[in-house]
Amino acid sequence: MNTPYKPDRQLEKRLSDKLLDVLIRAGLVVALVMLCYRIFSPFLGLMMWALILAITLYPLHQKLAGSLGGKQGRAATLLVLAGIALVVVPTALLASSMGDSIHQLLASVKGNTFAIPAPPEKVADWPLVGEKLAAVWSMAHADLPALLQKLQPKIGSLAKEALGVVAGIAGGMLLFLFSFIIAGVIMAFGESGERGARAIFDRLAGQARGEEFNKLSTATVRAVAMGVIGVACIQAIIVGLALLVAGIPWAGVLSLIMLLLGIAQVPALLVTLPAIAYMWTIGDYGTVAAASYSVLLIVAGSADNVLKPLMLGRGVDAPMPVVLLGALGGMASSGILGMFVGATLLALGYQIFMGWVDARDDVEALEDDSQPLA
Length: 374
Description:
Distance between the termini: 52 Å
Oligomer: single chain
Largest sheet: none
Helix content: over 70%
Strand content: under 5%
Radius of gyration: 30 Å
Shape: elongated
Structural class: mainly alpha
């Protein structure tokens, strides 16, 4: 006869106690993680930028430390001081120059000494905006105070937005300055940090692929720094020199705009086309000079098409389009910082997926080899 089933109450109690213990521990871990994130979140952007700068500059830091007899701290200090001098000093000079220009502009407007030249006749023939632009331009030439009075509400809102942009730039520069200092501390302890990062990847992906993922993440961050920010800096310098050679006014400000547009992956035509239009419509250029300078500006604005394929995917074990798509998608969702995070995550995801595909091919090959011959 079949004996009736008798549940083991003691076993059930032990299992329920064990499950409750696991749930309590998991809950405590989740609560601890949330509290740590809440405390650390104000410094998350600062630390991310510091880590990105440290990863990007670490090879240069190692070369400098080698020339200083292996003194990591001294090399990091010199590198940080040089970086601050190269970034802060030009930025301060540019900000001072822009402030002086704005002050002179406001003084001339208040003193009614600011004059706007008459618009060329060709402006009215421009499609879509030609007539309206020519009318506003003519009004500004004839009676600038009346135009300012008419546009006063819009000017007030634009001034507030401009102040917000300036405040954002100042905050970004302070963030970059502090992150550069923290990056120097990270580079000074780079060897222990590298061992810690390798241990984390070994724990997450296993010892077999942990080192591979560690190298891929490092190479991706450096490739984005060189292929996006580095290319943007080079292109801004090239376009700025072309603007200076062509004699375009405000060449320095346009170069700064070109740098920001290059980082945001916006085409350089937004800067070069207005400069070309200025030469052909307003500027006092001959036909040969205007054509030559136009070709120069177009070539300078297209420099990223040559530099980006060479620098963006350099040293990365992932296709260049994958890195570029990750950088663009990350920037669209989280700004410039997301550019590095997006490229790194997409490169890691690509490697994990391709590793899974290769593992499947290896399994099928082993199965074919294990079948007996007929």
